[in-house]
Design a protein that fits this description.
This protein is an alpha/beta fold. The protein has a single domain, classed as Rossmann fold. Helix content is 34%, strand content 27%. The strands form two sheets. Strands 5-4-6-7-3-8-9-10-11 form a nine-stranded mixed β-sheet. It has a two-stranded antiparallel sheet with strand order 1-2. β8 and β9 form a beta hairpin. α6 packs parallel to α8. The chain is globular, with a radius of gyration of 17 Å. The N terminus is likely disordered.
Length: 237
């Protein structure tokens, strides 16, 4: 592979979260898969929508795959922000795919290959460039063949890379002593935290892993604003 091709494969895409790109050398690497981890209420879905909106602004069509929440509920929740989300949905620069409809309402379970190949067919058919899967943990709980996960997920990651599609998967926060396959297969891991200190809610972000990118791994303060999540350069304390 020529040097020019190698450098092209390191093209960056903005996260859409103010302050975060500065921590990871200018943005995420295009065509790679990233994990966004956090407890309930930490901002994972908001982060995902910001990521898709940033892409839509740059003519990168986005796909939001919902497992737990209905797309209508997500859209209503996002109206609190100045995202202009409805305009992006109407113009189909961002599309929702309600995977939870088939999994939970119909009581159907998929194999890993069925679930991920289905997503790939939508990505390819719709000309998608950014994908958010919310949440990957829920998808994991709905499959028939958990032992086949690493192989199917590996194929999924490679295919997205070949298509130049950047993917963000939200994952429920787990014990630091238990890491699942997606932690190892993903090119980056971003963690959202919230905890109480002196009777006050503290919110923070940490870039735990980021392949091929110089990054700051220290805890950084984050806040919910009218424009969505924002990362600040200082520590949360």
């Amino acid at each position: 592979m020529y040097v020019g091709e190698l450098l092209k494969n390191l093209d960056r895409v903005s996260t859409g979260v103010p302050g975060l790109d500065d921590l990871i050398g200018g943005g995420l690497i295009k065509g790679r898969v990233y994990l966004l981890i956090g407890p309930p209420g930490s901002g994972k879905t908001t982060f995902g929508i910001q990521f898709l909106i940033e892409g839509a602004k740059n003519d990168e069509k986005g796909l939001f795959v919902s497992l737990l929440e209905h797309p209508k509920t997500i859209t209503q929740n996002m109206l609190r922000y100045n995202f202009g989300l409805l305009n992006y949905l109407k113009s189909k620069r961002i599309v929702f795919y309600d995977l939870g409809e088939g999994v939970f309402r119909a009581g159907r379970r998929f194999t890993w290959s069925e679930a991920l190949d289905n997503l790939l067919s939508i990505v390819e058919g719709e000309g998608i460039k950014r994908v958010v899967i919310d949440s990957f943990t829920s998808l994991e709980h709905s499959v028939l063949d958990p032992d086949y996960k690493r192989i199917a997920l590996g194929r999924f990651v490679r295919k997205l890379h070949d298509m130049g599609v950047t993917c963000l998967m939200t994952v429920e926060m787990m014990s630091s002593e238990r890491y699942t396959d997606e932690y190892y297969l993903a090119d980056g891991v971003i963690v959202l935290h919230h905890f109480m200190r002196d009777y006050r809610m503290i919110r923070a972000l940490q870039v735990l892993k980021m392949h091929g990118v110089a990054h700051d791994t220290n805890l950084k303060k984050i806040r919910f604003t009218d424009e969505g999540l924002r990362v600040y350069p200082e520590a949360p304390f």
